Amino acid sequence: MNRFCFILFFTNILNAQVNGVVLDSVSKEPIVYANVILKSEQIGVATNFKGAFLINNKNSLNSDTLMASYVGYKTQKKVINHTKKDSIYTFFLKEDLQLLNEVLIKSSKKLSKGTYKIKSKGKKLIGHNIKYNEEVIKLVNNDKNTSGKLLNVTFYFRNYESDYGQKLPVHYRLNFYYVDSISKKPKDLVLLESDIIIKPEDKNKKHPFEVDLKNYNIKFPKEGLYIGLQSINPSLTQPKAGAFYVITPMLLESYVKKASTYYRTLGGETFANMKGIKKNYYRDLIIDVELKYYEN
């Protein structure tokens, strides 16, 4: 009997679900698309339009740390206990006024040298089936010997046309990362005044989605910039446990011989490069960028 109770107890821990809600501390309104991360497992999700979240935790200690964050707010942590059943964790995030003041980027007073476009060189386009709460970023190199400002960025999408698997909708959060001067890998997240969420249409053919960035004053350094998307579940519908699912519209990518595109799950500490099916090739996210360059 004791052995049975232990097995049942252990099974409950392994299959624990962590759920709750993220709210504004003043208005008590839900914070939509806030990131919630389970620290020990390095997994996370984004809140839905009700501010609610649900994390399926298959492998964890009895206690853990849960973190909630959103741009313009102070990150909040909670120590949680997986042995407690039916626990709902509520976060009341407070605005970080000091952080907001730091990221208010003033318009550059440098003289403009005009605009310049950087286009992806990949020709064969294929759909990239990323899952919810994954992030895909690409290094956009700066081939001009001067800094600039991002004007717009264009991603390419297409509908998932097969009947195989569960089809689910998706929104994306646009993220930017500075380039590490030594490793050339993604470094610090570029802080913005507000989140940039894109909602591409689910069309039956390849289509571009241009994001206007003129009002964000995002600098484009000489070292280049990592640009990418985090996939977000916009609905209350969850993927069926253990079943194959596809989020659509799908991001389009190509193949290249030099790695420049990386991915990680939300909560993961490091990015990994995306190896392609073809030997000695890497998967490459299709991104077009328009910039305004300045005099040195």
Automatic annotation (TrEMBL):
Entry-linked InterPro entries: CarboxyPept-like_regulatory
Superkingdom of origin organism: Bacteria
Protein name: CarboxypepD_reg-like domain-containing protein
